[in-house]
């Protein structure tokens, strides 16, 4: 069963065999597990985060401002909200701009921007200030925002495919990514197989028009395509994906040289302030 169902089963067994009140101590409990335990009214202590003793009417939580640790965030930001944060960090500060102006910059609808801002507000990465009838975005700046935001961000890569271009103009829809992009930004040697990124929906369109085809095996003339959750274009420069999306796409890479290059990548970013 699931980790939560296992905990519930063990709790019932302990309670029956010990015939007393059982309080579970769960240092590694995930947010969804905590919610499930509260709903089931099972007493527990998550050290440093929450104490729940329903029979004694006690429910204490850690400070709301506590920064989540990586992998503790149950629901990461949506692709659009992630793009908004990364655009603010790297391309142009959005603080002080109306949501309509942000929509113009990103070629989004005002409703899309509004929803993305609501998400990053819930993650405590921003808040909206009312300025008459317009909503003005207010966000932190620079590296402190990145460090606060990183646990909420995920790899942009949905899946990877070996592909071959079938039409000359197909290459224009792709952006250098992966180790190919990392070799542009750092001293890391380039991988012999080029890595290019494209929004997954754009890739589907290219497949339908036979502008690209899938390679069944690694053969000459095939390259690796990363199908992204969001369009790389608003964040890319000179047809290379942005540094922070690149970092997120390669974070945790098993090669120590790549990990070292990624650390250098962060150090060299000119944070927008």
Short description:
The protein is of the alpha+beta class and about 270 residues long. Helices cover about 40% and strands about 20% of the residues. α4 crosses α5 (about 110-120).
Strand order of the largest sheet: 8-9-11-7-10
Number of helices: 10
Percentage of residues in DSSP E strands: 15-25%
Radius of gyration: 23 Å
Unreliable stretches: 62-66
Which descriptor suits the 3D outline? Answer: globular
Succession of helices and strands: HEHEEEHHHEEHEEHEHEEHH
Largest sheet: 5 strands, mixed
Instruction: Report the count of strand segments.
Output: 11
Question: Keywords for this structure?
Answer:
four-stranded mixed beta sheet, alpha+beta, 10 helices, 38% helix, 273 residues, five-stranded mixed beta sheet
Structural notes for this entry:
This protein is of the alpha+beta class. It contains 10 helices and 11 strands. It has a 5-stranded mixed beta sheet with strand order 8-9-11-7-10. β2 and β3 form a beta hairpin. α7 packs across α9 and α9 packs antiparallel against α10. The longest helix has 16 residues. 27% of the residues are buried. About 2% of the residues have low confidence.
